[in-house]
Amino acid sequence: MNDLILQPILFMGLLSLVMLLLMYITRIPAAKVLEAEGVDLQKLSHPAQLGGVFPSKVERVADNYNHLWEQPTLFYAVVLVIWALGHTDPIHLYAAWSYCALRFVHSVVQITVNHVWVRFSLFFMSWIALAVMLIREIITAVAAV
């Protein structure tokens, strides 16, 4: 049962890969349009200079890809601690898969309708799932001392 906690990491990795591919599928054609309009993309080589250059639907995909390297890094660490200490149980599994499902829906919302309050709600709920795992591990670690 302990190894089951590693499967959500693979799911999140797959979600990151899909977003990477979608980012290139949307960004490369948009970049070619900009070049055809005379925009020198080399002058936009710093990420801060890209804001507002690409169409919103293209930027949202890139933004989501970047978001998958922020909060989820803590998720990966917590899952690996749970696994390494042999603390996998149904609550951790439900929380981990809930986190994955919420991040997936968050990604879909961000790259499609991008409704801010829906995105925020999904983000916050994913934090709750992550906090359940984190706090349970902290309590277990403190109790073991």
Verbal overview:
- The chain has five helices and no strands.
- It is mostly helical and 145 residues long.
- It has one domain: Four Helix Bundle (Hemerythrin (Met), subunit A), CATH 1.20.120.550.
- The longest helix is centred in the first third of the chain and has 30 residues.
- The mean pLDDT is 93.
Which properties best describe this structure?
145 residues, mainly alpha, 5 helices
Layout of secondary structure:
Layout: H1 7-36, H2 56-67, H3 71-84, H4 90-111, H5 116-144
Concise structural overview:
This protein has 145 residues and is an all-alpha fold.
The coarse overall form would be: elongated
> In CATH's first tier, which class applies?
Mainly Alpha
Seen as an oligomer or otherwise, the chain set is: single chain
Query: How much beta, percentage-wise?
Result: under 5%
What kind of sheet is the major sheet?
Answer: none
- Helix tally equals 5
Which runs of at least 5 residues are low in confidence (pLDDT < 50)?
none
CATH architecture: Up-down Bundle
CATH H-level homologous superfamily name = Membrane associated eicosanoid/glutathione metabolism-like domain
| N-end to C-end Cα span | 25 Å
